[in-house]
Amino acid sequence: MSLWFIRILFLSMCTVAGWAVSQVRPELVQIAYSPLLGATAGFGFGGLLIAIDEMLKGFSLRAFSATTFGLLLGTIVALLIDHSGLFEYVPEQTTRWLIRLSLFLSFSYIGIVLAMRSNKEDFSLIIPYVRFASQNKPDNLLLLDTSVIIDGRIADLIEANFLEGLIIVPRFVLKELQQIGDSNDPIRRARGRRGLEMLNRIQRTKRLEVKIHEGDFPEEAEVDTKLVRLARNLGAKLITNDYNLGKIAELQSVPYVNIHEVSKAMRSVLLPGDMLHLKIVREGKDKGQGVGYLNDGTMVVVNQAQNLIGQQVDVQVQSLLQTGAGIIVFAEIKAPVPAPPAAAT
Length: 345
Hints:
Rossmann fold
């Protein structure tokens, strides 16, 4: 509705402008009823522009910019050929004019068509150091560090369709994984090989695209510093398990996600009275206590369960204790429901 209001206002202004021109410059319209003719000419001019606007309804700004860019390139190529001296010995001036006209029309058309058929990434070949986002992919860059790749839960999140965007793995992170995998320490070597396996698993997934980024900062010795700088330059979100790296990124206004914090937030909420089914794995600190663990690692202390070690039991939550390491759950063995007495025969 607002667009038609603007069009009517523009048409009115063109009509008034045509009438004003006929009054200020009457020599331009040297016939009777010149004010009416001027107003009609202004109205026709405004109507023509509105008709062109209606015809270009499906013509986007990107198409207009691509057309202009293609026309510019075609004109430049035509000018280079025209000034190359190929047509200096054309005998007639009219023939040379026709050749130049055909040259400019041909290359202008070819430039426009090529620009319209190209996508955004093609322009980065002509205009270097300018980053264009992919047309059909979200502009959400997720930068992975070494710790989160070795951890492996990032692969589960990707396969569960929990994350969306483009996964970025820097070349220097891949190099660090290879160095850890070639370490003489068997623990570090196992961690490095697990990280490479997780990276291969992430690359095989069809849900998200994974890119190996070649950017590096040779003047920086620490991988963490390189990650923060790369995330800031790309406008990417840093995915990590390193608490200190997350705090450094936060100080430099770089968005980050700590997978450990995500896992804590996704833990199931327990309330007194809830029933749990778990395995008693060891003795507790106090006499008669047994200890079991939930799937997320939460420790459950069960009273009167010391003699049930190695068995699966049903317990009822009594209370919860918040500590610096997490939550400790205190529970009691669920008493079996006594069978009803048999009826007398």
